[in-house]
Write a structure and sequence with these properties.
CATH architecture of the largest domain: Alpha-Beta Barrel
Bound molecules: iron/sulfur cluster
Strand order of the largest sheet: 2-3-6-7-8-9-10-11
Shape: globular
Number of strands: 11
Largest sheet: 8 strands, mixed
Structural class: alpha/beta
Order of helices and strands: EEEEHEHEHHEHEHHEHEHHHE
Distance between the termini: 36 Å
Strand content: 15-25%
Oligomer: single chain
Length: about 270
């Protein structure tokens, strides 16, 4: 059972290290990923005793705030979202992300020289519902996180998120509609998605969607230990997961990525570790 609360927040545009601003229309995330860094950061202050993935706060005044906050700005760089998934399942009902994008689009179109640089990263196919709005934005990029093709394991690690094949399909549809896209292949999970063959298959699946950019990232194991540690024991992968901060392991992983990417030389990519 999920716990859904409607809350009000003071501001919608939050200063950020990822880009100039972030927008998090929700606090908490029903995708409930076991490796989630946001849970580690957010649960120091909020919902301390609850299980990440079992609650979400709906920031119901996000759009109202945003309308005031962007009035004075001609150009902003916004990342949606750093601490939640703006297209998690509750977005179907609340449409906060849709209204946020519509607000940015209306503001841009009302004033000729206004431009917002928007990046959305998600695991939710619900983003396709908003194709009409996305097409109206001047500079929009949509990224999908892809971590593995094995659906049984995907359900364990990212239980509330869209299935991987649906994310790949969504990327394909976005590309067909000329929306800029990228894939975030991360975290690469030791023993699950880190061997040459798996990396190759995932990259190939992304390539087949028409996506031209991939970001690779490793697992940050020690930071989020408890949940990821428990699951690594259960899956008999404890020793594999432990390696994810080891220099030699990471160098080997980078080499495998380089070998794979040699075969896809028309994709831009970046290894973030
Ligand atoms: S989608 Fe992102 S914010 Fe949501 S649980 Fe997964 S890692 Fe955390």
């Amino acid at each position: 059972m999920y716990k859904i609360n409607e809350v009000k927040v003071k501001t919608t545009l939050q200063k950020s290290k990822i880009s100039e601003y972030c927008i998090n229309p929700y606090l908490g995330c029903l995708n409930g990923c076991l490796y989630c860094y946001a849970s580690f950061i957010m649960q120091r202050w909020h919902h301390k005793d609850e299980i990440w993935g079992s609650f979400v706060d709906i920031r119901i005044n996000s759009v109202e705030n945003l309308k005031k906050e962007i009035k004075k700005k001609d150009k902003i760089d916004v990342y949606i979202s750093s601490m939640t998934d703006a297209y998690q399942i509750v977005e179907e009902k609340y449409k906060l992300t849709r209204e946020i994008l519509k607000t940015l689009s209306k503001e841009e179109n009302a004033l000729f020289d206004k431009k917002f640089i928007i990046t959305i990263q998600t695991k939710g196919e619900v983003v396709l519902r908003d194709l009409d709005v996305l097409k109206n934005l001047k500079d929009i990029t949509v990224g999908f996180t892809i971590t593995m093709l094995d659906e049984d394991k995907r359900k364990i690690f990212e239980k509330g998120a869209s299935e991987t094949y649906k994310r790949l399909k969504a990327l394909e549809i976005l590309n067909r509609n000329k929306i800029k896209t990228y894939a975030f292949f991360g975290p690469i999970l030791p023993g699950i998605s880190d061997d040459y063959e798996k990396i190759y298959k995932i990259v190939k699946s992304i390539y087949e969607t028409g996506t031209k950019e991939i970001l690779f990232d490793k697992l940050s194991y020690f930071k989020y230990m408890k949940r990821i540690k428990d699951i690594s024991y259960k899956l008999n992968l404890y020793n594999d997961f432990l390696k994810s901060e080891d220099k030699n392991y990471l160098n080997e992983l980078k080499s495998k990525i380089l070998v794979v990417m040699d075969e896809f030389n028309n994709i831009n990519y970046k290894i973030l570790f």
